[in-house]
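Milestone M4 deliverable, item 7.
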Amino acid sequence: MNTSEFLKQMNSYYPLSEETISAIMAICSEEHYQKNELLLESGSMARYYYFIQSGLIGYYTTDEEGSSIYKIFFEEHSFVASTSAIIKNEPSDFNIIALEDCSVIKYPVKAFRELLEKYHDLALFHIRYLEKTGW
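Output delivered:
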């Protein structure tokens, strides 16, 4: 798993200590998704945060006629999650889908929350990320 861009992006929001980096890397895994494969289905609980190493991901809902309505697209080196659903601890209103074959680093919401309580610098990263993305 190549983590250099992942860590570069995290550190662009707030510089993380080596101890924090070790802790976050311990909960990360690499996952591959094929084109049109769902990372998260609408109505499901969001259990992971994702970082796109390669590929393109879309965030969409379906209207009454069954048409897909895309809210946003995420390119390589972006963080992706159903952030509102995670914060509210509610099922997601959106689908998250691989629009191309994708490689992602994923980390579980629950383990990440535990790290946020333990590592102040990681909490500051998360706050700055949420502020910058408008959540």
